[in-house]
Amino acid sequence: MATAGEARSWARTALRGIGDSLYTPFRGPDGDDIDWDAYRTLVRYCVRDLGHPMLWCTSGISEFWSLTIDERKRLLEIAIDEGRKENPDVVVQACTASMTAKDCLELTLHAQQVGADIAYIQTPMMELHGGEGALRFFSYIASRTDIALGMFNSPSSGYVLSPAESARIYQEVPAVCATKEGAFRPASSRLLHQLAPDLVLWECDRTVYRAGWLRDGIVSAAQLGTAGYLFETPTRRLLSEYWNLVWAGKLIEAMDYGRESGLDQFDVDLGSWWTCYPGRPDYFTHWGGAFKYAASLLGLPIGDYPHSRPPQAELPAEAKAQIEKAYRRLGLLGVAP
């Protein structure tokens, strides 16, 4: 675990590679319980079978808004326990966003106490008074904890911090060392880098990596919270092969590989089911049922309640058919994990 004082020097070397954002497998009537064995299996699969060096816990894909504080704590504890049995050096990232600063503080202190490496705080989702309010939120948490902190700037919060607002948080809160820029606005990420050049930055728009932004030091070699386990299997390491080329600076080879392996077409074939509910097309979401359906196609356990908890809707048959067709075209179906 990196303390607040060590955060920035630690982040520059420790945050590297594919970081898997873990889903939550539900079970029982209405998904009121969690299938803990299935969750342990998912952690071992990501760390041992795929060899991914980072875990991203209790964030959007995990449906944190539907989990109790006790459930979120236990999910993190299991990820640390199972993950470090397989790889003592696995970097565990805890997302501690909550509707209240006090609940976020409780979760962040817990992450610190159980040995998470860093806590990420998504831009507050309720009653946020812009960048000033976000700064107050981060300052409140940082003044009461001693762990590295990261920003998660997602449009699912309903408000996206401007580059100047994010840079101010970085400048005034020394524990903040990294950010996941999830709004797909690369021009803003470039400006943020200019304002805070030592901030470890992950841009969700992957085209910037092909444009040489990693080589130029604008973005980092860390995927901060992606569903990497849904893009490859232990016997077909599509995503790892692609990113290894990018990280090695072999951009032409990476572009060729993305096209020839089917990864580029896979993005097109999937459509927007993972992040868009058709009944609210202007809203960016993390549709838990869609991620878990994809996982089930790869043979991963998702619990006996395959849907998301409320307030998310159930995944329609149309989505399942499109997702399955995309996986068949990519050639990953029938390859047991």
UniProtKB/TrEMBL annotation:
Pfam family name, one: DHDPS
Family matches, as SUPFAM superfamilies: Aldolase
InterPro entries: Aldolase_TIM, DapA-like
Keywords carried by this UniProt record: Lyase
Signal peptide boundaries: none
Highest taxon of source: Bacteria
Keyword Chloroplast attached: no
Protein name according to UniProt: Dihydrodipicolinate synthase family protein
Organism: Mycobacterium bohemicum
